């Protein structure tokens, strides 16, 4: 596993194939980083499916309201958390392979709990979505996520934890 320099700002996401280690970027997007830690600590992401996975583009998850495995997933991707939406925290960081972007509606200030992980460099997203983390280990497990919009049998985040709490 990659060396974890800042356990308080590192997320460990357990997928079916193994762990994905994500370095959050609180210096770039403090509100988004804090929200992910808050939801991880509450167990809100545990069991949430990847509801939109587009080959050569990205894998989207994080709908804590409607995306729990075992539930009615027809609304997966339409919800967020009980917390208010976040203001955009755009930066000059590119949407490169392995970065985390905040999913949102047409309103730039509508990100909440959903996020996506880029499968490749998606420069056309630069400056339009908040980048607030990057995969530092386990990207092969992200690459193995079942594709589909939505996938017939979606993969899920088994658990999501802050490394400082593990």
TrEMBL record:
Enzyme class of the recorded protein, top EC level: isomerase
Keyword Ribonucleoprotein: no
Molecular function terms, GO-annotated: peptidyl-prolyl cis-trans isomerase activity
Highest taxon of the lineage: Bacteria
Reactions this protein catalyses: [protein]-peptidylproline (omega=180) = [protein]-peptidylproline (omega=0)
Pfam families: Pro_isomerase
Keywords of the record: Isomerase, Rotamase
Catalytic activity, EC: 5.2.1.8
Gene3D superfamilies membership: Cyclophilin-like (2.40.100.10)
Keyword Isomerase listed: yes
Domain PPIase cyclophilin-type residue range list: 18-166
Coiled coil: none
Similarity field: Belongs to the cyclophilin-type PPIase family.
Protein role: PPIases accelerate the folding of proteins. It catalyzes the cis-trans isomerization of proline imidic peptide bonds in oligopeptides.
Protein known as: Peptidyl-prolyl cis-trans isomerase
